[in-house]
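The authors assume throughout that readers already know how a fold can be written as discrete tokens. The format is easy to grasp once an entry is in front of the reader. For illustration, here is how one protein appears when written out as sequence plus structure tokens:
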Amino acid sequence: MSLEPGKQLLGGPLAVVHLGLDNLIDGARAAGAPVHVVDFVPPARGDRALAACLRSLLMPPLAAAIDAANQAALERILASQPHLVGVGVARDVVPGMAADLFLHAGPPITWDRMAGPLRGAVVGGLLLEGRAGTPAEAEGLAASGAVRFEPCHHHAAVGPMAGLITPSMPVWILEDRGPDGVGRRTFCTLNEGLGNVLRYGAYGDEVLTRLRFIADTLAPLLARTLERRGPIDLKSLVGQALQMGDEGHNRNRAATSLLFRELAPALVSAGPGVDVVRALDFIHRNDHFFLNLSMPMAKCMLLAAEGQPRSSLVTVMARNGTDFGIQLASTPGRWFVGPAQPVKGLYFPGFTERDAGLDLGDSAITETAGLGACAMAAAPAIVQFVGGSAEDALATTREMGRITVGRNPAFAVPALGFAGTPTGIDVRRVLELNLLPVINTGIAHREPGVGQVGAGLTHPPWECFAAALRALGESCNDMARSNPGPRL
């Protein structure tokens, strides 16, 4: 065999493309050769046991069964038709709500482990409910067990940031009117705006006054408005908003404006003129007003996929400022938990990353349903709020497409040639590509009582997806053993 080609290669200047351990290329660097390092990590970050589990789920016979399950789950998500149908009081409409129950964002947590923003929201909730007269008294009540805490997700509800829902709070009522919706309902509080608000852990007089206005004036007006106007197709509205520069998580200006147009004609006849003016002005001044509808809309869509055996689709991503939890379509109600992560972003004047709490809120349900970071290509202006460039927004959506199983044609993105947003995060692809989902989110101060300090981007912890994959592997292998099929 001739060695001439090799001699010719080694006879000239070398440029090295390197994958693997860094110290193996030290010699080439020392000799002055240009080295191009490829960012490569083995699937499952090189964890052999996890990689073996992943391999079993990506190869016959399980791969075909999981792919079919994911397609069935995705089709139900896409067929869901969430409509806004009303406004009610949490204790009257939220399933399982009780007088001593407070709902919060993220996976289950106890008072002693709660982060500052969630503690602040609980204090504010006890003051709002009239169960405490001072913050110190409220903290004592919370620590004593006088109030129970459960995740919003356990009650078909979602809540931004702290996610707090107390018994007397008004909530939006959404209903799935798709072919398989069978009256499925989801719930969320009304959005307070930005800055010093309860959902970011603030509980001063300004915060409580605003919440009482929402409960006593705004919510009853909106309830009467929807009785007059009838249901609003939220999926169609969000589809329009994406073509007007929204992404459904941190940019909701277009969707809020479209909702304003839908509500205003009926609202003007729903109450006294002064209340109508205050209500319209409140919505007009709050570009985030629609966030508390995009979230339960996403929850409604994802509920349609729950209970699909063998599916590896993620149906919940939620955080409480201490823990981050996910759920799969095949194991509804089962949490896979890791530590909440810091958020990298832009800060309001006077604040820095030293002031920031960890990732918080149920609003990652938007990314789970194909909005938020999945739709950032539709909203290049979002980078002015969370950081980065317009090119980053486009790249983020494309990156999310690598770990999802399909696209939602109802959420078309002009910058992608009107392709739908990537939808259906597959836990297998996350581990195969070592590519965690992106979440764009607000940043709360780490101490209770302060409020919002900025906004930015973050990722879930790796541990959630590793644990979910292991559980999926065990479940699928158990099913395969119990249904071995015919012998060949």
User: Anything to note?
Assistant: The chain has three domains: 4-36, 47-76+306-482, 82-298. The chain has 17 helices and 17 strands. The longest strand covers residues 404-413. The chain has a mean pLDDT of 92.
